[in-house]
Amino acid sequence: MDREAGSHGAVRARTRHSASRHQARNILLDRNGEPHLTDFGLARLVETESTITRTLEVLGTPSYIAPEQAAGHGPELTRATDVYGLGAVFYQLLTGYAPFAGGTTFETIRLVLETEPRRPRLLNPRVDGDLETICLKCLEKNPQRRYSWTLELAEDLERWLRHEPIRARRTGPVTRGWKWVRRNPALAVLIPSLAALAALLTVMSWPAQPEPSAQGIAVLPFDTLSGDQDSAAFAEGMQDDVLTRLAKLADLKVISRTSVMQYRGERNTRKIGQALNVSHVLEGSVRKANGRVRLNAQLIDTQTDQHVWAEQYDRELKDVFAVQSELAQQIASQLRARISPAEKRVLEKVPTTDLQAYQLYLRARTLSGSGIGGDPATNRSWEQAAQLLEDAIRRDEKFLLAHCLLVEVNLNLYWAAGRVDLARRTRAEKALRTAEQLAPEAGETHLARALFLHYGKRDLDAALGELDLAARLLPNDAHVFQTSAKIERRLGRWREALRHFLKANELDPRDPGALVQAVVTLLILRDYDQADRIATRAIVSLPEAADQFWNLKAEAALEQGDLPRARAALEKISATTGFPGLRFAMLLYEVKFAQAERFMLAQWHGGEPNEAQFYTSAAALAAHASGDLR
């Protein structure tokens, strides 16, 4: 049977008001491709007010029921529930497997509620990418993110059959162009030069700048209308809280704090929108005086540079978190973002009732921005951050964010500078246990638990499980996705790692770290062309990190045996930049062994013993290659 035809036929059957939450084997096709439902105990015509959509019971085969149905949330069942059931059938038609299957009914229901299905193309590489997208949209955990009803799904499948862009995801000009060619082959042959078309498609294709996300926003640093340092810190805290609240909405793309802080005082909104690939920016100014706070906020369209919304808030200082919650909800409404009941509760939650504790937390987070394993200056910053967090916790013992950040800072110090400080690991575990008592299912708690499992216990699989949960609750946290990618790469899951590095870069585009790691992963996969394209684009968009990407371009060329191109890329790197390893390899490939030996010996300036071992060993390798066995 043609699985794709069967999938489309099943949709047509469902749109004729037939409700069935059963299995793919109950759908048969006749010679004309028309579907027929069997197992009439569960497949029957449903009237508008059918009790099937009102029952509080779990009805249907566990592998094919929607999460809200598996949880017994009868009042929440809508037509989107039927879309999920049909998506599960669709999944089996495409892959030959149910989307979820445990050893018991209970285990299957747990998988339905807590895990994501594997991509159909991993099980059947012949599945078209657009069909996979349509199928996975049907299987979204959140009913609001599925097709609203089966007719909408059928219409998208009709578009696929006509080779038109589907609506389940945004398609770029190249995708739309190729589908036009498939729909209009007679007109396509009139194009005078296929070579010109190929060149045009190359220019249009990635890594060209994508269209701004229609629901993408950058919350820029708020201005302060008072000149004192305390007011500046207060304004930074307000901006940070609004950004953090918006970032927890799955329907929005929210740029990370690291990237937006670079635009303090910058007001060229079109330039910002292009650099961060967002459709809107939020600007604000804050005045704090006489126990009151006044906030002026403006939402600006980055493509037209026009104000689309503005509001002024004038409240008592004690109500500052309520103001920030109200502002975040107003912005979400203006961007037409859907807010689930759980997300609304998160938006309204107050992180702490102590403003001074919150300021201590913000200072600690700024100091803790470095990664695992720092130099002495970074270690001192981490130690200061830990002290500030402990001070904040003394003021508010229920301050969840402070406990979670304290886990990460202590883990940084646990591994700092090549030494293992067991006392810091103990402190990290203590902070984690407190966070788990305060809010065991919060996204920040899942992230802290993942970090402890990774860096504190080296349990990589368990850490990934916690990161999956954190990603659902912190959908715009670049740190979550970059940490997932690092673990996946250690486990040899290269494609998943690449996807998460690129996702982290999308959310934090001004931080080169994730993009550097994406290119490194592509080199491991030997996808040299894509690695070179990303590096080329990054040299332009991130000039402050250009040397890192020239180094990667040189490595890509060297791994392909293109010595002239590798040498040309190395020559672009500034003289003060390191990368001795690649320069050394280049000299070896060029059979300049004596020069390679001198180069590595010159790199070591009497530093740490482990550095001496690296440089002298490399020099010995070059000497051996030249025939000098002394």
Q: What radius of gyration results from the CA coordinates? A: 28 Å
Total number of domains: 4
Output the CATH class name of the largest domain. Answer: Mainly Alpha
Report how far apart the termini are. Answer: 72 Å
Average predicted confidence as pLDDT: 80
Strand content: 5-15%
Would you give an account of this structure?
With 630 residues, the chain is of the alpha/beta class. The protein has four domains: 3-170, Transferase(Phosphotransferase) domain 1 (Transferase(Phosphotransferase), domain 1, Orthogonal Bundle), CATH 1.10.510; 213-339, ABC-type transport auxiliary lipoprotein component (Rossmann fold, 3-Layer(aba) Sandwich), CATH 3.40.50.10610; 357-573, Alpha Horseshoe (Serine Threonine Protein Phosphatase 5, Tetratricopeptide repeat); 578-630, no CATH class. The chain is built from 30 helices and ten strands. The strands form three sheets. Strands 5, 6, 7, 8, 9 and 10 form a six-stranded mixed β-sheet that branches. A two-stranded antiparallel sheet has the order 1-4. It is globular and about 80 Å long. The termini are far apart.
